[in-house]
Write a structure and sequence with these properties.
The chain contains nine helices and eight strands. By secondary structure, it is of the alpha+beta class. The chain folds into two domains: 140 residues, 2-Layer Sandwich (Heat Shock Protein 90); 66 residues, Winged helix-like DNA-binding domain superfamily/Winged helix DNA-binding domain (Arc Repressor Mutant, subunit A), CATH 1.10.10. It has a six-stranded mixed β-sheet. The protein is globular and about 55 Å long.
Length: 239
């Protein structure tokens, strides 16, 4: 059944609440608008923060998600996402253990992810490298720096907002197949969809994030996806 709002119910043990602050700077001489996002489940707070910031910014959505997911390595300690320059700059900072070698952190394969991290995100050592490549393809820049007093700051900057989606272009072939599958079996997880459609898991993950950004697919805290009302309407026009 189509759904617009992901279910953020969690089976995590109570007692620890993760907090991420979002600071939206509307004008240089005005204080930022601060929003606090709280949840006891790492996957749920990543989803909520990404959904909010994606609506404020014009950076590539998949790159944005990769950087926000990286906060799990810092256990979301003093996590802050700052949106600047009318959404053309997003800065994600934390007070975690930091990155000992920023150069290697930008190369695929280097990761500090343990089993608990991999249970929430891929943790395959490709997040920052993928994000940097996506930002560069848009003519932008991704920088990794040490935070003041410890931790990490990742800044994504793009020169201008990307061109809006062309409704006439419609979804890609992979997206059409994923939308049709979600109409038949929902909710479904990326691993299941990749297996059913014989597509690489990486392709499925990227296409799902792009469709989430367009409002066609909603995500549950456990990673399951469902069609939104808009996504269901798109499927109806395809067949």
């Amino acid at each position: 059944m189509p759904a617009d709002i992901p279910d953020t119910a969690s089976t995590e043990l109570p007692g620890h609440t993760y907090v991420v602050r979002i600071a939206l700077h509307r004008a240089a001489l005005e204080p930022p608008v601060i929003t606090e996002v709280r949840d006891i489940a790492p996957a749920a707070i990543i989803e909520s923060v990404f959904s909010r910031v994606a609506q404020m910014s014009s950076v590539p959505p998949l790159a944005l998600r990769e950087v926000i997911e990286n906060l799990i390595h810092a256990d979301f300690r003093d996590a802050l996402v700052t949106v600047l320059d009318a959404g053309r700059t997003v800065r994600v900072s934390d007070r975690g253990p930091g990155i000992t070698d920023a150069r290697r952190a930008m190369e695929p394969g280097y990761t500090t992810a343990d089993e608990s991290v991999r249970a929430v995100v891929r943790g395959a050592g490709s997040g920052l490298a993928l994000a940097a490549g996506l930002v560069a393809a848009e003519g932008g820049l991704l920088e990794v720096e040490d935070n003041l007093g410890g931790g990490t700051v990742v800044t994504i900057t793009v020169d201008a907002a990307p061109a809006p989606d062309d409704p006439a272009a419609g979804p890609s072939d992979a997206q059409r197949r994923l939308l049709a599958l979600l109409l038949e079996m929902s909710p479904a997880h990326p691993e299941t969809m990749a297996r059913e459609l014989d597509l690489p898991l990486g392709v499925v993950g990227r296409e799902l994030v792009l469709m989430e950004h367009r409002g066609l697919v909603a995500r549950f805290a456990d990673g399951g996806r469902v069609l939104t009302e808009r996504g269901a309407a798109i499927v109806a026009t395809l067949f």
